[in-house]
Amino acid sequence: MNYEKLLEEAKKASAAAYAPYSRFSVGAALLTASGEIFTGCNVENASYGLTICAERVAVTKAVSAGFREFEAIAVYAPTQEPISPCGACRQVLAEFGPDADVVMGNARGAYVVAKVKELLPGAFTLKTEL
Ligand code: THU
Hints:
By secondary structure, the chain is α+β, with helices and mostly antiparallel strands. It has a single domain, classed as Cytidine Deaminase, domain 2. It contains 4 helices and 5 strands; from the N terminus they run αββαβαββα. The protein has helices at 3-14, 54-64, 87-96, 116-119; strands at residues 27-32, 37-41, 70-76, 101-105, 111-115. Strands 2-1-3-4-5 form a 5-stranded mixed β-sheet. β1 and β2 form a beta hairpin. The longest helix has 12 residues, at 3-14.
């Protein structure tokens, strides 16, 4: 799977964004280790803090379908600069794939790639031993 194709899926997914408050539509396309693609878009709420980002929608769709190993996630927004996932999404991505690539795209089709663990060094993990 090349990242241009994954980014195209993310762009298509952004068309379904529910963003009446920010008017900022985001799309994500998550590639699993076994080759499936799960897409997501941001879903806003009148109670703004309940908004869920495109990346977390894609992750929850994949996990709820039984897929937990991620190869890459492409994120698209119609911006000048490649979109950079928020801190909450980085933590959620780190739960399943610190080594996964994050493909950050923009309106011009340009993108940059960084690993989840590079975007969130020192992610929180629940260590229960004393
Ligand atoms: N948003 C995402 O969906 N992904 C990101 O990486 C950054 C922000 C959404 C949340 C909200 O609906 C809108 O973009 C503006 O913050």
